[in-house]
Amino acid sequence: MYPIIAPSLLSANFLDLKKDIIMLNKSTADWFHIDVMDGVFVPNISFGFSIIKQIALLAEKPLDVHLMIVDPDRYIENFKNAGAHWLSVQYEACTHLHRTVGRIKSNDMKAGVVLNPHTPVTVLEDVISDLDLVLLMSVNPGFGGQSFIENTYNKIANLKELIERKNAQALIQIDGGVNASNASKLVNAGAQVLVAGNYVFGAPDPHKAIQKLKDI
Ligand code: DX5
Ligand code: ZN
How far is CA 62 from CA 137, 140, 174, 199, in A? Predict the structure, then answer.
């Protein structure tokens, strides 16, 4: 079952998205990772509801939506209507995180919280038991194809300790610079969900690249 593999569509071919979605349907990938960027929280803009709705029509696996936007509360219902199964918000963008998480869950989605590389795991102490997933960013969010930040391994260990101590159920997801060289160390450290963009869509054979991560 683990690791769950979630290829990031940010690195897909937007001129032929259908082909990449069908490829992922046929592959051993588990989820579709969808990166939503608003040009304010991160210095990049990606795509919004209409594209996600189209993806949902074809995708045969859960949509794991990662919001890199300010004030995500405004759009929770919109993402549910667009077809999101998992909805993750950036800790740094939420003033009332506990309420945001509750609203995601009351809209029948799984709730995730994302920590930027500089945000310590300790900030989740009082909310971890409410979460279905914690995403540790292993690059600064905004772009695909960046290099992996090594301190992520320490953060996984800290997060694992917190989850066990609180008897919580949250999955540990890693996003940014994941590839076949660091994946086994990540999984051994406690990662359960691996996001990979450039590594999958930049590979000569994306099926093989996904399977390599899956075999870890
Ligand atoms: C970065 C996004 C990532 C990105 C990962 O802001 O959250 O999901 O697409 O891409 P790679 O795997 O290429 O680092
Ligand atoms: Zn992401």
Answer: 20, 25, 17, 20
